Amino acid sequence: xxxxxxxxxxxxxxxxxxxxxxxxxxxxxxxxxxxxxxxxxxxxxxxxxxxxxxxxxxxxxxxxxxxxxxxxxxxxxxxxxxxxxxxxxxxxxxxxxxxxxxxxxxxxxxxxxxxxxxxxxxxxxxxxxxxxxxxxxxxxxxxxxxxxxxxxxxxxxxxxxxxxxxxxxxxxxxxxxxxxxxxxxxxxxxxxxxxxxxxxxxxxxxxxxxxxxxxxxxxxxxxxxxxxxxxxxxxxxxxxxxxxxxxxxxxxxxxxxxxxxxxxxxxxxxxxxxxxxxxxxxxxxxxxxxxxxxx
Length: 295
Hints:
The protein has helices spanning 3-21, 96-103, 107-127, 132-136, 140-156, 174-246, 248-263, 285-294; strands at 22-25, 29-35, 38-43, 47-50, 56-62, 66-75, 83-93, 160-171. The chain has 295 residues and is an alpha+beta fold. The strands form three sheets. The chain has a three-stranded antiparallel beta sheet with strand order 3-2-5, with no helix packed on it. β6 and β7 (83-93) form a beta hairpin.
């Protein structure tokens, strides 16, 4: 037989064995070389690596920062005001050998279950030591740091480093929302009533002050008007007195004409009095004749 008939299978087997003994470690991962389930090598640097075919196997773990959402959990702060907290954590596998020993063949899923348990326990413990107002205030950043720091030693036993813990949302339980909203509405209505009462009180003070100012202004105006009117009347009387003193007969004639004008208004005036009344002195013809003779 031809020698190539025997050499070709051997070459193929050697090439297959060589290819199965070489593996590539990506820069985003770390690898463990296992032999019968026992770790014999840790590959953390990216590049080519080797293993024994059929005897050894390679297990890869992500070397990047990973995120884990924690299922919403209910906590009870010091003031017994129950809250539902939704949080997430960022972590990284820093010791793949220890991680493998801690989780075995369960891998990432088993490790995240363990990590959930740690974070839920520490979250309840930290948030249960403060009041709900502290959780809902700006102090929550310090609380998140406390949860992270208290979880680090337990997570380190898994070969995991917890980088950050964040509280995404903090709500009241659904059964408490209606009662809380009603209490908040009652508080807002009470505040609104107080504000309206204070506003009405201030408005009454302003109106009272305005009314007082109006009364004072009107009174002062009326006083000044009476003074001016009195001074005018006095001046008028003085003028009349001067005129009466200068020509008494003319002044009497002028006053009679004024009386006639006021008494005989309209087209149909009726007056009942004695014909020889002094009111008609300047309407008699003989009076007019006497006046003409005097001139």
